[in-house]
Amino acid sequence: MLSQYGPILILIALVLGFAAGNLVISELLGKKTSAIGKADAYECGMGSIGNARLRLSIHFYLVAVLFILFDVESLLLIPWAVSAKFFEAQGVGGIVFTEIVGFVAVLGIGLAYVWNKGGLSWDR
Amino acid sequence: MNAYIEQMGLIAPELVLTALSLFVLTWDLLKKGRNSDHIGYATLVGLAVTGWLLLQQWGMLGDKGTQTAFGMVTIDRFGTFFKLFTVGSMAVVTLFVMLDKNERKHGIGEYYFLLIGASIGAFFMVSTNNLLLLMLGLELLSLASYSLAGFHKGSKRSAEAALKYIVFGGLSAGVMLYGISLLYGLTGTLDLGLMGHAPEGSGAVSLATQFDASPIPVAIAVVLVLAGFAYKVSVVPFHFWTPDVYEGAPTPVTTFLAVGSKAAGFAALLRFVGALFLTDGVDASIVAYGDRIGFLLAILAAITMTLGNLSALRQGSLKRMLAYSSIAHAGYVLMGAASMTSEGFAAAMFYLAAYYCMNLGAFGFLIYFEGVTGKDDIDSLKGMGWRHPVVAWSMVVFLVALTGLPPTVGFYGKLILFYAAIDAGLAWLVIIAAINSVISLFYYFRVAKSMFLTEPVPQVPMRQHGLAGILCVLAVVTVLAGLGAFKDPLRGWADEGPASLEIYATDAGSR
Fold first, then answer.
1. In chain B, which residue's Cα lies nearest the Cα of A107?
2. Potential cystine with B315: which of B158, B292, B321, B334 (Cβ 3.0-4.6 Å)?
3. Helix, strand, coil in percent for chain B, rounding step 5
């Protein structure tokens, strides 16, 4: 069974060999110049300003997390809406509807919680 | 429709807990944090209802045998045993939160919400044969625990505890998921029962068949999953988070981590090992491999108890000492899993039940002591025995039980663990465990010595009658549960566990 992975090993060897080979060849054959511009993070475009480790407002993270919360909700609701007719034909429409109402209710409590704690207002 | 309601009835305890968690959160929101004690009482009532439902379920399972809900949740006596103790420890932790004078009462709704969420995770974790649901339960338990560890936002140590916990937890969850994905790739199923024994036409390949074809991938997968469990129960190579997290987290949370979370991890570990290697119908080739896994667990148990005990010797802080002691106790419980017999599993379950009583008590004492002095180092205990005799004597009972001396439940738990290990041919492990018990005597009784044999330091006398009462009750339970009239029924309940997992009741040495 392990021998099935042989081709993958060959692929890994080829990829590593190709990358290492290119580096070695350019080191051997390439022209070597040194200038101030070479040491920049980007050889073209604007020079970088300031430190990369800025302190960002926690609101950005909060918004990202809240986005996931409601995004997942809509992601589940769409396939549910598409297949609702199928479930009704199976005679389990009531159960499936109750379940989705429960799901939205739980998320609704989450929304009420966030709203009440001021997670939705930017300037707090 | 009726079948649906019936299956919802099987997970009624989980549904009640979920409703309780939402209720607690909403109520706190409406009350804007006032009347925090009422939320505690509401939580206790909800936990009592859950406990009552679980007792009904325990009786029902005796008549009907193991039930399955939605093809995912396995309701058996093994799981219900652990759920009952999770609810019990949750109730005690809730009381601790209510009575803890140091606990910030702000945001108490979230506190209970997260604690209840953690128990819901533990509930699903202990009652499923499906690796997907097991992983979900474990993650729910872990995510709630991470936030709880960092609950004191202003405290640097609390934040450090949460960060360490989430980094270790994320890594080991990844390792475990990798193992699960390998198992799924090998067998084509996520169901532990089918992995152990795949009947014709089930569409799955049993792990034994794959093991005969190529043992290395199977070995890697099993060891990776075991590593995930080992992290959860803080077995030695994966224990580094334990002391720092236990120290930084609020003490009631530490209590829950040391008791509820650890027991849930052990339940999942026992179920995993049992289903793959020990149940009826498992093929012979994998049973032989199971013995090697048992040997691996035995080595881990020996290292865990020795390292935990030796580190506990050097601790100045009572909280860190209890953290290392909980690592050492993970080693003792692992002896039961390592013996790979139904007796060993039952002994591990009994010992976990004993561990609930004595560790809840020891951490309760810690909360009391922190409330009195505001410190957690053993030297500040001086004179506790004379100023707070009731609480101090309760602590002595817990220390005796943790050491494993008669007449407490700790002694009897260790005794049946040792018996099971000797029956499984692990006499060397029992010798190491016995030496470790002697070592632990030294550091447990350092606490007693500090309380009784040193001059009291002047301190503000402060009494917490509620907490002292709970500690008394726990101490009485710890002693009584070691005596015949209470010990034998408890042993009977623990024996139901392996039976409901359909593990062979083997004679000594036949395997």
1. B22
2. B321
3. 80, 5, 20
- Dihedrals phi, psi of B314, to nearest 5 degrees: -95, 5
The shortest CB-CB distance from B29 to any of A94, A95, A116 is to A116
User: Given A2, A94, A116, which is nearest B214 (Cβ)?
Assistant: A2
What's the ipTM?
Answer: 0.74
Burial group, residue B57, by CB count within 10 angstroms (0-12, 13-18, 19+) = buried
Read off the pLDDT of residues A84-102 as tens digits, 9 standing for 90 and up: 888 888 878 888 888 889 9
Residues 6+ apart with CB under 8 A from B184: B131, B190
Supply the pTM of this predicted model: 0.86
C-alpha to C-alpha distance for B84 and B67, rounded to whole angstroms: 17
| B228, B172 Cβ separation under 8 angstroms | yes
Which residue(s) pair with B309 in the sheet? none
Q: What is the pLDDT of residue A16?
A: 96
Angle at B457 between CA B452 and CA B462, to 5 degrees: 90
Q: Give the nearest partner residue to B22 out of A1, A91, A106, using CB atoms.
A: A106
Closest CA to B257 of B185, B313, B330, B196: B330
Give the residue from chain A lying closest to B213, CA to CA. A1
Using an 8 Å CB-CB cutoff, list chain B residues near A113.
25-26, 29
Query: What per-residue confidence (pLDDT) applies to A15?
Result: 96
Q: How large is the average pLDDT for residues B333-361?
A: 88
User: Looking at residue B466, what is its pLDDT?
Assistant: 74
Contact A113 B216 (CB under 8 A): no
Cβ contacts of B184-190, under 8 Å, gap ≥ 24: B184/B131, B186/B210, B186/B217, B186/B218, B186/B221, B190/B130, B190/B131, B190/B132
- pLDDT digit string, tens, across residues B62-117: 777 777 888 888 888 888 889 998 999 999 999 888 887 666 666 788 888 999 99
Q: Is A61 on the interface with B (CB under 8 A)?
A: no
Give the start-to-end residue ranges of the domains of chain B. 2-500
Contact B350, B413 (CB under 8 A): yes
Left, alpha or beta for B234 (phi > 0: left; psi -120 to 50: alpha)? left
pLDDT bracket for residue B511 (50, 70, 90): very low
With CA atoms as reference, the chain B residue closest to A1 would be B214
**DSSP code at position A3:** G
Rounded CA-CA distance B17/B123 in Å is: 10
Q: Looking at residue A13, what is its pLDDT? A: 95
Q: In angstroms, what separates the C-alpha of B29 from chain A's closest C-alpha? A: 7
CB contact under 8 A, A92 and B1: yes
Q: Tell me if B25 and A2 make a contact (CB, 8 A cut-off).
A: no
* Residue from B2, B4, B31, B186 to probe the interface with A (highest A Cβ count within 10 Å): B4
Q: Are B270 and B184 within 8 A, CB to CB? A: no
